[in-house]
Amino acid sequence: MKKLFLGLGLVAGTFAFAQTSPTFGIKAGVNVSSISDDGYEDSKSKVGFSGGLFMNAPLSEQFSIQPEVLYSQLGSKVTTRYNTTIGGTDIDYRSDAKLNLDYITVPIMFQFRATPQFYLEAGPEFGFLVSAKAKDINTTQVNGSTTNENTNTSEDIKDSFSGFNVGAGLGLGYDITPNFGINARYVAGFTDINKKNNNEDGNTTLNNNENKNRNNNFQAGVYFKF
């Protein structure tokens, strides 16, 4: 909670730097997110939603700062496998999981306008985890024969993940009209999303004490200024 207030404090603090009155707006779009594949044999992108509010505070004619508060659906599709032998019996386990990680994100973008309509942006993004769920398809094979298969199971796994995430964004945008525009941004995660020393529940698929996984996200959408 303290980190959330810190992020919101950074947003409020940008008013002090504004040279003219800031403008406010809303934005929405799609995320194409993934998780770095350390510890996973296969990792694929996942599509989600992003949307929220922003404030644009001009610092000069060409530079401005834009803090945002967004609801952002991240995650990935991952496959985990492991093999073991018990009493001379070969057991192969495979889990295909869709990880749904929902965050409240606070990007703080510094924007440079190359033209009155076109701009480039870069800055940090702080994420606060609000939900983490996995939808699994689990398959177990004994001596090469499938003996048990559980499909479409859902599990709350928030306790397996860190509640705070930091990344850096780089993007661009274009004002189609003075009030409406389009924006694209890539956000690379810096911090490990896993919560360590959390194997008490025996969840082999989603606890990665030996690995470091980071969120990566490509975001594209539209915005409207009031």
Structure description:
It is a single chain. The protein has 226 residues and is mainly beta. The protein has a single domain, classed as Porin, CATH 2.40.160. The chain contains one helix and ten strands; from the N terminus they run H-E-E-E-E-E-E-E-E-E-E. The protein has one helix at residues 2-13; strands at 23-35, 42-44, 46-58, 63-86, 89-113, 118-142, 145-156, 164-175, 180-189, 215-225. An eight-stranded antiparallel beta barrel has the order 1-3-4-5-6-8-9-10. Strand 6 (118-142) and strand 7 (145-156) form a beta hairpin. The longest helix has 12 residues, at 2-13. The two termini are 30 Å apart. Residues 198-207 have low confidence and may be disordered.
